[in-house]
Amino acid sequence: MIRKHLTIILATGFFALLSLSCSRQLHKNLSSDNIVIYPAPPDTARIQYLTKISSSLDITGKRSAFGRFLLGEYKDLGILKPYGIAIHHGKIYICDTQLDALEVIDLEKHNFEYFTPEGWGQLKKPVNCYVDRDGYLYVADVGRRQIVIFDSTLRYVNSFGEAGDAKPTDVFVKDDKIWVADFSNHRVDVYNKDSVKLLYSFPESEPGNEDYLYSPTNLCVTDDRVYVSDFGDFRIKVYTHKGEFIMSVGSYGKRIGQFVRPKGIAVDRDLNLYVVDAGFENVQIFNKNGELLMFFGGSYKKPGDMWLPAKVIIDYDNLKYFEEYVDESFKLKYLIFVTNQYGPDKINVYGYVEPK
User: What is the mean pLDDT of residues 157-181?
Assistant: First the structure.
């Protein structure tokens, strides 16, 4: 009996040590001495750069000498050229246009893996993705010229869109509809979520009209508005759910509030609009009336800067995984993720903060 209990104790201790040797939290690359905040003092800080994710080691960590002795060296998996990104229930999904697959990060389990489906779900050039409230993953694949759908266990479910002249560059799910940015046909297509049948498209317009979409690349849907990044017209165009034009934000130019290469967009709960500009290598923030509030980022020189950024998303539900990086003088309101297609920091994680 004593030998049995001793065996259990030794086994428990072994696995505890093994767990400690392999587990870790996200890479913490800044101290309180070099905190990065926007805007810079003496203005009130609104955004703090928290951390970055560039490879599996930022999630799983390096094994200790004891871990290497037991399990061998851990192979580092890198994020190569990220564009689209989504987060749901502690899992991050990243469209990698060089890998032609997705990286899937489980923040709870500290797991990082490549998602390279085969058969009906095989991906060719995934550029953007979205996860709905049921955990279903929708991938806009410009290589397949389709939207490819997987369930919450990443099993292939369905795909839609003809392999013709359409070029779906982004996808968003809201209520019972799927919204798709169609780059080639200069429009937004709206599908029924259950049947994936096309319901309608917009705008019905001509070049030269203010509501015309020259090169729609990214979109974001709120309760009553559809925001579309028109790369070809250097503006963000805003419509009702029915496709009625409301307004545009920005214009071509090199001054703040203007755009050179507008790409990813996101909208927070106060209807503030976040716009990635790959030319300025920053994110500009506008209020619901289209007035510039601030910007953050900049050409890469240090952590917090950007290198050909592509996508921005906002998340209110996964704060617990990043709160430890928030300066003690701030309260974290929500998270902001920005993908960088080049440079050492592939996914920048920021927090929208307010003073305590």
Answer: 92
